[in-house]
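Students often ask why inverse folding is considered easier than folding. One informal answer: many sequences map to the same fold, so there is more than one right answer. In these notes we will look at a single instance of the problem. The structure comes first.
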């Protein structure tokens, strides 16, 4: 191109240079990153020369007029042609120096430092007076270079930024959704790398996690298909770039790694030029790194690094989620195995208890059988002695014999209870059922217990039993049930209290007998337990050999036998009592519900 000496050749900015086509273009954030033009001329260059150049290069927004490097004016394309299109324009201006035209235009150019952010530059350009609105602005680079920036280029860059911001928001929402909906770490990391590529161009990207002295790749994009990223790792060396990142917790960008003598290239991969590393930070610690590589030397803009850092943040969250999930899974497994262990221990304890219970039952069975024979012998001899006239004649001996006899009878009862409970335990209780009058049985029990109640100055009354229908059942067994309930009622009711046996028929199929007392009552916590064999609420030390002595504990078998018999009849037995209180004596009510037609 033949231009006069003081006309500088026009250079296209690198980002518009076709030679660089295909190379990744970074996200512009300042006006220095944008396509600008340094077409400048001396003040005496003829306007004709400038106009010719403007005609030849339609992309030039105008010309800067420099006088020994000092800008003395600017003539924009459209102002030039506007002037020349006036009737006298060609004549007056074409043959005169360009500075004349500039003076005539009298437009003060807008200078902006090259580091001005695009948004701010757009704002200052649009804030200009109306007649200057379409003028290019002048970007001032470090070192003094001045370049013209077309307003359209500026506006296009801003709209691109906005479009990027929009798509970024969409992507962030999508990643956020993935983060909260999937626990598939690989899926989320791949998505992060994929979305990042749409905003920040890169040739290769990798997410690495620190594992002791190495960084291990856990996700990658842009690597050759034969590369097995699971096998790829980078040793962390003393004060290397990763160590520096751990320390500063800030992104690091290297425009051209080929300028770094100690840069470690990875085997089998095309050599990197521009590189950026973003720390993955969790709980205030760097746990890994997001690495971005471009094959051409380039500068990552501050905006790109800031954006990449948000993707790195999401990768850190995904990793944390995965870690927590793995931890919960491990915790669950541990819990499961602990539960399993405990269950086994419980099962073993249960089996042991069952064995012990069996042994206890066996012992009671053996003991009661063994006791029965000598008891029968003792009872026989006592009977014989009672009828001996010599003993009958001696009042003292006679009384002692009565004592022995009473003891043997009580022992008999205890042994019988033991035998009953063994039968119930081993499900050997044989019921001999026939239709009988339960009301009459209860009346006879009242007669039997009347002297004992009188001894304790208690009122023993029976209500409404006459109206009971005959029922199907084993009268001997049911006698045992009410025998134990009445004995208990008398035993746990203080002197002067009362015991009432009442009956009613809740429906056609059932009858219900309630043995109520005005005794000490039973704590609700014990309502079920007292039906277990050998269970007693009081102190075992208070045991009494007397059948009805106040609170005199027995062997703890009465209620277990009663429940066994009632249930064998297909009935139910339960107790109601508000609490145990020896001062207030709230009393207890033992309910026995039996099917009229038997089991
Ligand atoms: P025991 O031979 O000890 O009387 P039971 O099986 O008949 O055994 O009764 C178990 C426990 O239930 C008793 O030790 C006593 O604490 C409680 N109990 C039974 N009946 C009554 C009642 N009417 N009032 C208060 N407590 C009772």
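Output (designed amino acids):
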């Amino acid at each position: 191109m033949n231009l006069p000496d003081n006309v500088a050749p026009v250079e296209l900015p690198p980002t518009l240079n076709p030679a660089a086509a295909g190379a990744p273009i970074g996200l512009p954030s300042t006006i220095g990153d944008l396509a600008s033009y340094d077409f400048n001329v001396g003040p005496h260059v003829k306007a004709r020369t400038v106009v010719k150049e403007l005609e030849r290069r339609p992309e030039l927004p105008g010309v800067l007029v420099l006088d020994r490097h000092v800008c003395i004016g600017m003539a924009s394309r459209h102002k030039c042609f506007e002037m020349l299109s006036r009737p006298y324009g060609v004549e007056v201006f074409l043959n005169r120096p360009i500075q004349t035209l500039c003076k005539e235009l009298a437009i003060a150019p807008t200078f902006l430092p090259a580091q001005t952010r695009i948004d701010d530059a757009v704002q200052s350009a649009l804030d200009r007076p109306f007649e200057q609105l379409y003028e290019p602005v002048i970007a001032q680079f470090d070192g003094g270079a001045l370049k013209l920036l077309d307003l359209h280029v500026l506006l296009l860059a801003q709209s691109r930024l906005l479009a990027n911001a929009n798509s970024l928001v969409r992507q962030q929402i999508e990643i956020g959704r993935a983060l909260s909906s999937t626990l598939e770490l690989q899926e989320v990391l791949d998505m992060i790398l994929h979305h990042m590529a749409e905003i920040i161009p890169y040739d290769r990207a990798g997410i690495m996690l620190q594992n002791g002295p190495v960084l291990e790749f856990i996700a990658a994009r842009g690597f050759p298909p034969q590369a097995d990223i699971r096998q790829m790792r980078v040793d962390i060396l003393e004060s290397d770039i990763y160590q520096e990142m751990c320390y500063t917790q800030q992104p690091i960008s290297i425009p051209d790694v080929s300028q770094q003598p100690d840069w470690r290239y990875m085997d089998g991969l095309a050599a990197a030029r521009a590189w950026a590393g973003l720390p993955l930070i969790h709980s205030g610690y760097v746990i890994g790194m997001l690495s971005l590589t471009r094959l051409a030397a380039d500068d990552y803009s501050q905006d790109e690094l800031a954006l990449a850092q948000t993707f790195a943040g999401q990768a850190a969250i995904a990793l944390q989620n995965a870690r927590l999930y793995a931890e919960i899974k491990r915790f669950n497994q541990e819990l499961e195995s602990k539960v399993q262990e405990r269950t086994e221990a419980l099962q073993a304890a249960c089996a042991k208890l069952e064995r012990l219970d069996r042994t206890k039952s066996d012992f009671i069975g053996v003991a009661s059988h063994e006791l029965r024979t000598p008891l029968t012998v003792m009872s026989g001899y006592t009977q014989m002695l009672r009828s001996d006239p010599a003993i009958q004649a001696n009042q003292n001996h006679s009384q002692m014999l009565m004592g022995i006899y009473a003891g043997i009878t009580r022992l008999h009862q205890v042994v019988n209870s033991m035998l009953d409970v063994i039968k119930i335990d081993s499900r050997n209780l044989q019921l001999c059922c026939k239709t009988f009058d339960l009301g009459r049985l209860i009346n006879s029990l009242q007669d039997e217990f009347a002297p004992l109640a009188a001894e304790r100055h208690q009122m023993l009354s029976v209500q409404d039993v006459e109206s009971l229908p005959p029922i199907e059942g084993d009268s001997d067994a049911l006698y045992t049930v009410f025998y134990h309930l009445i004995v208990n009622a008398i035993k746990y009711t203080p002197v002067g209290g009362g015991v009432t046996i009442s009956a009613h028929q809740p429906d056609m199929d059932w009858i219900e007998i309630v043995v109520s007392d005005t005794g000490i009552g039973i704590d609700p916590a014990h309502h079920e337990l007292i039906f277990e064999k050998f269970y007693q609420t009081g102190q075992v030390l208070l045991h009494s050999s007397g059948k009805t002595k106040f609170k005199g504990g027995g062997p703890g078998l009465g209620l277990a036998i009663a429940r066994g018999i009632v249930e064998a009849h297909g009935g139910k037995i339960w107790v109601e009592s508000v609490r145990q209180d020896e001062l207030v004596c709230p009393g207890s009510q033992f309910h026995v519900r039996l099917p009229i037609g038997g089991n």
